[in-house]
Structure prediction request, 453 residues.
Amino acid sequence: MKQNVLQPGRSGVQRFGLISAVIFAAVLVGGMVGIIQLAHHTTNQPTTINNSASTAAQQNTLSSTYVGSSSNVVSMDAKTGKIIWTYNLPAADLNTLKAPRVIPAGDTVYIALMSFNQKVKSAIIALDALNGHVRWSHQFDTTSEIGELALANGTLYGEVNTNHVRPAPPTPTPIQPTPRPALPTPTPPASIQPTPAPQAGVATLSSVVYAFNAADGKEQSTYRFEGAVDHITISSGVLYTTINQNLSATNLSTGQHLWSASIGDGGTNQFLVGPRVANGIVLTALENFNRSGMIFAYNANNGTKLWQSNLITTETSSMTVTNNVVYFGSMQGTLYAYDARQGKLLWSISTPGTIETAPSVTNGVVYVPEFVSSSNSVQVIALDASNGQRKWHVSLNGGQMLSLTTNNDAVYLSTSGITDTNTSSKIYALHNTDGSQLWSNTIQGSAETIAVN
Prediction:
């Protein structure tokens, strides 16, 4: 390091000034270090939970694939498939826990831990993307079930449904009344009907969407809803939710309810999938369980209905919206492409399997995952996004398609295989130009979701 040297010929005043400046700088730096250390030690840290992250490599990779399963969350090198670290979910029973949502963002991976075990609480957990260690977590009570996650502008939103059971009223102590002369019973007017008392022991559903600071997990705000929220999405400062057959919009800054739209005829087998927001349009799918489906589009600002699709004769998959086109599949194996602005069917193509997972679109290509029951195989089909023309397809023997995602380099997908004693998932990476296999690896548990940063 270059040293400061007093040059000959300088006056004593100059020497004194230079020495004083050096001393002042040293004191200033030392004070700043003390302030930084004090701030570090006085920071209010969120509660963390025990985890069993095992690090296979301490070196961060340029791109990682993250898989959330019924037993763990796994980070894998996106180019080689090598496992970097594993975060084991805190329970041995594979049927009571799962990580259905995984969102990688920068140096953090956010997961939703859904628990069906009274001993383990549902939670939102932030993991260090480098090593899988817990950065922060927020746990919910045992009557709560976590669903969707959404990340927007440094805020993580989590949707939680809660069962409330009305307790039985206390049994009153019998009191012996004093005998009195009988009085005539008045007849109430015919228009007045007695209101039945609420029944004890009946469960009611309510939902809360929590907003957390994504960096430190501090709760910022909450949004409460009557009924069970099925799906959420965030766009331009607005929270869009689906509850049963109702689509609604809420201003995130004020909490004000902006608009809502009732969709469907109230049938118990009907529910909404989505929503998806693109270029001022909200899209959702009305499903009639195992029977039919239909796509609806609304103005994102005021809830005005724009269009609805023709009736799809089987249940539809989740949607993907890009470049003003909405893509979705059906259980009958047909992939549809609709103009998101006008509702016009652009093209459709039939496939031999069932499409249960949302297609993925990258660089003008639609990648369609499907399960072919006749051959008990998983198939991935690559189509031209503009006209549906087939580019390539590949079949993978065994298992069932669970999740698929893409980036500029590859197609990543997970399939499951179940035996009498074990559940495992196989993760594949396929070349996006021809479907050739780049790598594969096997993890424990049934993979619920796959994501790549």
Remarks:
- The chain has one helix and 33 strands.
- The first strand starts at residue 54 and ends at 55.
- Residues 12-42 form the longest helix (31 residues).
- Confidence is low (pLDDT under 50) at residues 1-61, 165-198.
